[in-house]
Known about the structure:
Blueprint: E1 2-10, E2 13-21, E3 31-40, H1 42-49, E4 60-61, E5 65-73, E6 83-87, E7 102-105, E8 111-112, H2 119-141, E9 151-153, H3 159-170, E10 175-179, H4 185-191, E11 193-198, H5 200-203, E12 214-219, H6 223-231, E13 233-241, H7 255-259, E14 263-266, H8 274-282, H9 284-287, H10 290-293, E15 297-300, H11 302-313, E16 320-324
Parallel strand pairs: 9-10, 9-12, 10-11, 12-13, 13-14, 15-16
Antiparallel strand pairs: 1-2, 1-4, 3-5, 3-7, 3-16, 5-6, 6-8
Helix pairs in contact: 1-11, 2-3, 2-8
Amino acid sequence: MFNAIYINKDDDGYHAGLRELDESVLPDEDVFIAVEYSTLNYKDALAITGKSPVVRNFPLVAGIDLAGKVLESRSNKFKAGDAVLVNGWGLGEQYWGGLSQKARVDSHFVQKMPAGLTSKHAMAVGTAGYTAMLCVLALESQNITPDKGEILVTGANGGVGSTAIVILSQLGYDVVASTGRLEQADALKALGAKEVVDRATLSEPGRPLTKERWAGVVDSVGSHTLANACAATQSEGAVAACGLAQGMDFPATVAPFILRGVKLMGINSVTQSMEVREKAWSRVIDDLPADRLDKISQVVSLADALGIAPQFLSGQVQGRIVVDVNR
């Protein structure tokens, strides 16, 4: 038997709760994992609360991330005792996820834990930090180096935003953080932001082009915020877009792209290739060190995670939520 956050939908409605389950109900996948840590992300909060149709198959265990040790494997890529992690791939949406003490996962989704990384550290990074790292790699691919100028990070208090600030400041960039919670400005500066701006300056309809400021942008907000960020990006600058907290719409013109050569790069963290995943995760030890992540992380239990999930949707959660599934 094991504990998990179990989601079901029936004639009586949508249900999510902490349940004790038998191993026999786990899906028939080829890697059996004793989960040590998971995370709570915005997408998990949507799944647990049922506020958005994130879950595609019922019943299902929530959680888009997990880290732990292999108990059994029918795949020759893994053996009992291997430290592994999984993030994305539809876990917690289409497939049973990681907010659970045990999991069976398709071996194609599993990767070995990078040397020197613990399960707890990996989950403090989680999908949020991994996505932030993909954004940074995208900016680097366009030769956006620290000497080119300021980097704007939107949604700065969220998981992607806060970890992006840590990575970029660690690499020597001047980071400007955009947030709706200006009372957290000192905390964002402690993470490495040089300046903090009110999100209201970016979130309303703006002009097709404005004064060039940003060498690069990491945007997890979308909508008018993304449009305004592109409008103020320098010639040959780059924007990495990975979220839609403000909305899925993109009320912009082609002006920044054809008049300034701005590059808008979409960041897909869910079904990214294993080669790219391994490259991103290999950067974690140096660019997202555990002592920096501790400043933006809190460790909670599975039961706690259920209560925290609704707080995500009302913007009350800052930084990273690490779930100790055995607490």
